[in-house]
Amino acid sequence: MIVFWEQLVAGRIGIFVIFAFTAWFVWSVRLWYSLGYKPWTNEITNYRVTMVIPTYHESRETLEKSICALKANRINGHEVAEIIVVMDAREMELKDWLDEKFPFCRVLVAPPGKRWAVRMGIEAASYDKVGIVESDTFADPDAVQELMRPLEDPEVGGVVAFQRVYNPKENMCTRLMDWMESLKYRISVPGLSKNGVVNVLGGRLVVFNRELVLPLLPRLTGERFLGKPCVAGDDGRLTSLLLEAGWKSIYQSTSHCYTVSPNTWRSLLRQRLRWQRNSNRRIINAFKDGWVFRRHWTLGFQMASTFVMPFFFGLIVVKTIQLLFIYPLINGMWESGLVRLGIFLVGITVTRGIRTYPHLANARYDIILLPFYALYLIFLMWPVRMFSFLTLNQQGWITRQVASPGGMG
Fold first, then answer.
1. What residues contact residue 129 under an 8 Å CB cut-off, 6+ apart?
2. Residue 214: which of 249, 193, 245 has the closest Cα?
3. CATH 3.90.550.10 occupies which residues in the chain?
4. From 225's CA, which of 18, 45, 71, 268 has a CA 20 to 30 Å away?
5. How far, in Å, CA of 267 to CA of 261, rounded?
6. Is there a contact between 143 and 161 (Cβ–Cβ < 8 Å)?
7. H or E segment at 254?
8. DSSP string, 101-158
9. What pLDDT is recorded for position 323?
């Protein structure tokens, strides 16, 4: 903050000035596009839908709650027409419990890997609208109905719900995770949805026009990156395939669902690392294949800024550590260093507060956590993002032990 103003007043275009203007420009573009977003309110003519729940290493209590929440959904007063649970072949002991507990569900057994579970569920669906619900996600009673409104447009390939964390006040981890999800679905996703180019239809709760995704499924399960089969990132991959084929991807803010989030720092960081790897691979492939340039410019802008900003931000982190700690240590200027540190903490708190206002407006008490949120993004999330580039081709469906929360995706 100090160096930024020193460079700005002196008329020097240094790294801090460039980063500040770039970061605020990226945020402003995303915010500007999000302001004009409106959810679809049209009537639904076809209420029949198949909902698929892929599950692996899920606690039975959570899985039961997810299925029951889906069963409680109504579309124009009708129940969900079909529910398919796709279980992993590595835990066959689950099948008898599912058959006995939920006789209204079809139970399929898939080869290892979530991509195969998604593919088998969609291919086995009986209806031309098919949705995916993760086994640790709980849908509101009208969530599926709201998702089906945009699908009345034959050019819409898929629609994603507003996704939040279940029980966000459990601890600091769940609060921070809910904060990030809230910002994502209040700023980035609505802006992209206006142009039909949501870059990831998050797999926690999404509904597709089945005839549009069916031809894409072999490429979902057959994807390779640097010669290695891709296992995770099914939602991002399927979205990219839809966009590449020319179909729209839409966000419906009136559809709400809640997901079990990691409640320990270790599980949270492992989840974010896996998601970041998936994101990096998806963006690299999108630009390599070139299809992103044929869609709306906001999609390319979103992908490019997501990919580049961690590197740019890294220069700022290194320079900040040098100015706040290394320089005062070498020159014996601890008082100056403490003053700079105080201004730094105030500066990142204020700027982060402005940029996260859409969330704070709906969760006012989270303002107390602003300094922690800012420091979390700098000292925990930035290393995770950078490490994801070094481990880009490590893959996996989940990163948790049995019955621990927050691992699918």
1. 46, 48, 49, 50, 148, 151, 207, 208, 209, 210
2. 245
3. 50-296
4. 268
5. 9
6. yes
7. strand 248-259
8. H-TTEEEEEE-SSHHHHHHHHHHH-SSSEEEEE-TTEEE-TTHHHHHHSGGGSTTEEE
9. 67
Q: Which amino acid is at 120?
A: M
What parts of the chain have a pLDDT lower than 70?
Answer: 1-17, 19, 322-325, 327-329, 332-341, 396-409
Residue pair 190/197 in contact (Cβ under 8 Å)? The answer is no
- Residue 30: both structure tokens together: 């995303």
pLDDT digit string, tens, across residues 136-174? 999 999 999 999 999 999 999 999 999 999 999 999 999
pTM over 0.70: yes
CA-based end-to-end distance of the chain: 37
Which residues share a beta bridge with 258?
138, 164
Decide if 188 contacts 302 (C-beta within 8 A). yes
Tokens standing for residue 32 = 């500007």
- Retrieve residue 169's tokens: 């006040």
| Cα–Cα distance measured from residue 256 to residue 182, given in angstroms and rounded to the nearest whole number | 12
Residue 362 structure tokens: 């709906």
Q: C-alpha angle 330/333/336, rounded to 5°?
A: 135
Phi, psi (rounded to 5 degrees) for 196: 70, 30
Structure tokens at 227: 């010669």
Tokens of 367: 């303002």
Tokens 């034959």 belong to residue: 154
The string of DSSP codes covering 395-407 is: --S--S-TT-SS-
For strands 224-225 and 78-79, give the pairing.
unpaired
Q: Which CATH superfamily is domain 50-296 in?
A: Spore Coat Polysaccharide Biosynthesis Protein SpsA; Chain A (3.90.550.10)
**Are residues 146 and 44 in contact, defined by beta-carbon separation less than 8 angstroms?**
no
The pair of three-digit structure tokens given for residue 213, joined into one six-digit string: 């995704």
> What confidence score (pLDDT) does residue 400 get?
42
Beta strand 156-165 pairing with 205-209: antiparallel
Strands 205-209 and 82-88: unpaired
CA–CA dist 122, 54 (Å, integer): 11
Residue 343 amino acid letter: I
Which residue reads 């690299």 in tokens? 284
β partners of residue 259: 137, 165
Q: Are 144 and 71 in contact (CB under 8 A)?
A: no
Q: Are 349 and 370 in contact (CB under 8 A)?
A: yes
